[in-house]
Design a protein that fits this description.
about 280 residues, MetI-like fold
């Protein structure tokens, strides 16, 4: 019992230290966002400002920021909808189809996950330029779908493999067609996996910087990660406003994750199967 209690205490201590290590940068970001312009450079440094102010948030929440937010919302929302829809259809085909060609295609999907963004950005850029889609929402949506779709298929396939096929067979015996079986049986049962995949795609696309920087050239088409560069100038960095903007960028994704975390964990756990 003593050994068990000491082991538990050590684990709790390690968890506390890990939480501090992970959360300290976020706390420092929030702290700097509340400091006056001269206080971030004060010596000795303070974790919490002596005179907290919301002036940085007022300055950061300017019309350009609202434009960046709207662009990120459009691009991320469309990418989530398209990726989850195509990923669910593809994953269902891979799990229920018995053709050898589907196995080969699934291998290609897994292989596509191994390519880094930097390796495919130039080909995608040239394709977007050839069809005159640069500096549009469509170019970013297509790029994000191409990057997130392989992972979405892999996640949803692992989840769908856990669903009992007997329910679909019973519905088919009762006269339901393939499309009705899919929408009325498979989709409701796959909700945790769908939500987990949607949260993953949202996190990836909301914070993506490289494609957004390369495919947009005007201020009114920038997304939030690229828009944060406005506070990094030639002669200095406005740290207070930059941290305030970073907090406002992070809050929506954190709120979505905490609201849907039980579905996210359930979807990832159910998808962690062999095959």
């Amino acid at each position: 019992m003593k050994q068990t209690a000491s082991t538990r205490a050590a684990l709790i201590l390690l968890q506390i230290l890990l939480a501090i290590f992970v959360l300290l940068p976020f706390f420092w970001m929030f702290s700097v966002s509340l400091k006056p312009p001269t206080e971030p450079f004060a010596i000795p440094a303070r974790l919490w400002p002596d005179d907290p102010t919301m002036a940085n948030y007022v300055t950061a929440f300017r019309p350009e920021f609202r434009t960046y937010f709207l662009n990120s919302l459009i691009v991320s929302g469309a990418s989530v909808a398209i990726t989850v829809t195509l990923g669910l259809l593809a994953a269902y085909s891979f799990t229920r189809g018995q053709l050898l060609v589907l196995t080969a295609l699934m291998s290609l999907v897994v292989l596509a996950q191994m390519f880094p963004h930097a390796a495919i950005i130039i080909p995608i850029y040239r394709m977007m330029r050839s069809v005159d889609l640069l500096n549009t929402h469509a170019s970013l949506i297509i790029a994000y779908v191409s990057v997130t779709l392989p992972v979405a298929i892999w996640m949803l396939r692992g989840f769908l493999m856990k669903l009992p096929i007997s329910l679909e067979e019973a519905a088919a015996i009762d006269g339901a067609g393939p499309l009705r079986v899919f929408w009325d049986i498979v989709v409701p049962l796959a909700r945790p996996g769908v939500i987990a995949t949607a949260v993953y795609v949202l996190i990836v696309t909301w914070q993506e910087f490289l494609f957004a920087l390369s495919f947009t050239s005007t201020r009114n088409m920038r997304t939030l990660p690229v828009g944060l560069n406005d506070f990094i100038g030639q002669y200095g960095i406005r740290y207070g406003e930059l941290m305030a903007s970073s907090v406002m960028v992070s809050v929506p994704v954190i709120a979505v994750f905490f609201f849907l975390q039980r579905y996210f964990v359930a979807g990832l756990t159910a998808g962690a199967v062999k095959g």
